[in-house]
Design goal:
- The chain has twelve helices and 19 strands.
- The protein is α+β, with helices and mostly antiparallel strands and 443 residues long.
- The protein folds into two domains: 96 residues, OB fold (Dihydrolipoamide Acetyltransferase, E2P); 317 residues, BirA Bifunctional Protein, domain 2 (2-Layer Sandwich).
- An eight-stranded mixed sheet has the order 6-10-11-16-15-14-13-12. It has a five-stranded mixed beta barrel with strand order 1-2-3-5-4. A three-stranded antiparallel sheet has the order 7-9-8, with no helix packed on it.
- The longest helix is centred in the N-terminal third of the chain and has 23 residues.
- The chain starts with 15 loop residues before the first strand and ends in an 8-residue tail after the last strand.
- The structure holds aspartyl-adenosine-5'-monophosphate (AMO).
Length: 443
Amino acid sequence: MQRTLIGDLSAHKNEEVTIKGWVSVRRDQGKMVFFDFRDRTGTVQGVVLPSSAAIETAKEVRNEYVVSITGKVNARPEKNVNAKVQNGDIELEVTGIEVLAKAEPLPFDMSADGYNLELNTELDHRALTLRHPRLQAIFKVQAVIIDSFREYMKSQGFMEFQAPAITPATAEGGAEVFQVNYFDKKAYLTQSPQLYKQIVMTAFERVFSVNKVFRAEPSATTRHITEIVSLDAEMAFIDSWTDVRDMSEATVRYVLEQVQQKCAHELEVLGATLPTMIDKTPTYSLTEAFAKLGVPEDKDLNPEQERKLCEVVKEETGSDFVYVYGYPTMKKPFYVYPNPENPEFNEGMDLLCRGIEWLSGGRRINDYQQLLSHVEKWNMDPKKIEMFLEAFRYGAPPEGGFALGAERMTMQILGLKNIREATLFPRDMHRIDLPLSEGETNK
Ligand code: AMO
């Protein structure tokens, strides 16, 4: 018989159907056996009556067995209707069970209510814990976030491009870069598609990419991972860095709207409330931000100050977001555009949400000679970025762009405590799939 999806069952009352999926819960009540079955569209309760031909098999089936179930879709008696759960008004009276795959006994309780794992255990067993409704909700929301980024970019005339992961030079500077043995030469895993999105922009004006980037982040914090999904955009013919801010704000607004519209069930499962984006997101220069915090000006906000600034802004305006722009020029990468009136400060910006930075961007230098002078000041080898420089040698428009970290977005939209919860297969200093063993080093 043709497979019916669990999410469609309520349209098949009084009919015989076949569903395929997993056993989430099994309650053996002696004579009868109750099940919760699960497929990609949801869950349904099944009952195997003592008279059913499937009763013997039902006694053998365990949690996470993969099964094909034949049965009749019955309306539940009024007193058993549960309006709070999916398919709470129906029940599948099981007449046949075919076991498609067996499962070993589970190492821990995976039932919706009983699941209470410590994060490291959850991550060590990602292959299994991913089946839990809470984790499925997180990664469904993440898929919507990434899809919506793409949708919005396309709607604004941006073209998607594929950025390379192996690079001859480090775009963002700093020590947080993974070096790879590239045959007998040195190469790096990309920290950001920055230089490539700028090159591609000089040909296509508006471009975006959804790419893995890598940061050799030596700190074990709740917001750093080493392999990140970066949502990058670059746009030509801007008049000011505020055009980039406005585009990034509209992008985030669209993503939030889509999550609200498409993920109502997931948000409920997670008990999450979306961050509030008001009409015009508050925007402060770094100098103003420090003044607001009442602390002496420094080169950047530290994590505690980022948290505090968000709190203050939330209190004053109701916004969960705040832009900070105008960082000390020499503290940021060479490509960031210095403010012509005060070149000590640049036209770079960050967007903070609920205490954490989740977007960076700004205006870039498009004048070739100015770019060369920055390459020199930043002590960079121009040969290593020759391909980038060539794009600007032959005419590049005023431009800017931004990048969002998909995991940080997911974490902050859902109010998760640790970025690893929002990362399907998180990599950090101590983990690639599983914890790295102490004894094994590459030395
Ligand atoms: P930046 O270095 O600020 O900017 O990175 C952009 C965004 O990527 C995310 N992110 C991270 N997320 C988790 N773990 C990390 N270790 C990590 N590092 C970065 C954050 C951050 O806001 N080229 C510029 C962007 C641009 O100007 O267009 C850049 O890479 O969400």
